[in-house]
Amino acid sequence: MLRAGALAALAAPLLASCFGETEPPAPDPLAELAAQARSDAATATAIASAHADLAAAATLIAQARQEHAVALQQEVDRERPPTSSTAPSPTGATPPSAPPSAKEAEQALTQALTSAEQQAAGLVPTVPAYRAGLLGSVAAGCASLREVLS
Amino acid sequence: MPSSTSPTSGAAEPGSLSADAVDGLQQALAAEHAAVWSYGLAAAFLGSASQAAAAEGSSVHQGRAEANERWIKGAGATPRAAEPAYVPPEQVTNATTAAAMLATVESDVCVAWRGVLERTDDAALRGIALAALTDAAVRATRWRVTAGQTPATPAFPGKP
């Protein structure tokens, strides 16, 4: 009893020092996924207007990746409400240009979807359960969108 | 820094799952059973070009159902049995309606496995659930394309 009490007394200040002086929190990993989804949506939109043969698939990809971006950003903001300094700046800088050939454009979309699927899937084992469902659907959605291209 | 703070008692046995996770697995098992049955029905209507995909889908779902039963038994619960028959959402009369039924069934499988993802912290089970969700989403997409349905995939497969 005495020993346990002494340990508890020691533990309290230790914990306080661990959590008291916090460094700036690590960036939310979902923020990067949201940014990538926004970028993929913009690329797919450019490809849809540049390559008629890919228009249907690229439009579907653009819409789905935009939905991914919104849902992921909502989750980031829910967890840590944005301040003016952390809110994602609108990426209105330079809209992406589509690769000149349809074959390259298709490869670019396939690569983007493969990478997005892997990124989301890689986080699934360790995130809180409610995030695992969202990320699982994003990963499965990217795999399905790739199927639409093939 | 926080070393040796965990007590020796109360550690979960490997393979033990929460009641919530087991419930999610039971629902996934029910969806897999329904998928196996539906592939059996669809095979009678699908064209020759779809037979290989149907046979593969059937065998994948049979395998997942069996693996799922092992997980449920491992957690000390009794796996639910398959129903003798299922009611397709729409009447199946030809290749198109058969493919549409399979798209619906795969979509149901996606929902069930996403449910497992949301109910367990077990990394191994999450990996299995993610693989099952992704596989079913891709199959659902193929059957929608076969049935001529658009869009070929929702943005969030498995989202109820």
TrEMBL record, chain A:
Domain of life of the organism encoding this protein: Bacteria
Region of interest: Disordered: 68-114
Biased composition annotated in UniProt, kind: Low complexity: 82-95
Designated name of the protein: Uncharacterized protein
Species the sequence originates in: Goodfellowiella coeruleoviolacea
From TrEMBL, chain B:
CDD domains: Ferritin_like
InterPro entries according to UniProt: DUF4439, Ferritin-like, Ferritin-like_SF
Limits of the DUF4439 domain: 25-159
The protein's name: DUF4439 domain-containing protein
